[in-house]
Amino acid sequence: MGVGDSLEAALTLQGPIKAGTWHLIGDGIVLSPADVKYEVIWRHGGTDSGIVQWEHHFDPSTSDGSDKFDATAFEADGDGVAAPAASGDQLVLRWSIDAPDGGLPGTAFIPNGDGSASRGRIPSLILPK
Description:
Largest sheet: 4 strands, antiparallel
CATH class: Mainly Beta
Order of helices and strands: EEEEEEEEHEE
Number of helices: 1
Number of strands: 10
Structural class: mainly beta
Helix content: under 10%
């Protein structure tokens, strides 16, 4: 993947997913203003089907950059559709990042992979029950 490409994390499914409320933790390191779209996708037979999505605008937490490597929190719920998945299909969390102020998208926002070390949380999903 290159700068500006979407980022993905995939999990192999064991079977169907119910419709209902999804919970997203989408913390990230914000280096410049960024518009981030989070999508949950059911990948099956070479096809991607959307389940639920969120969009959020992030601004750096300080203007002087003194804590630029601390995570900025984002947490949201969203209503998702059912996915009649079969064993071996994938569940994908995709981040698409746009830098509206002319910056490079891939350098504006980085999903927080450092957890509490950057004063944030690892991105995660809670599926409908």
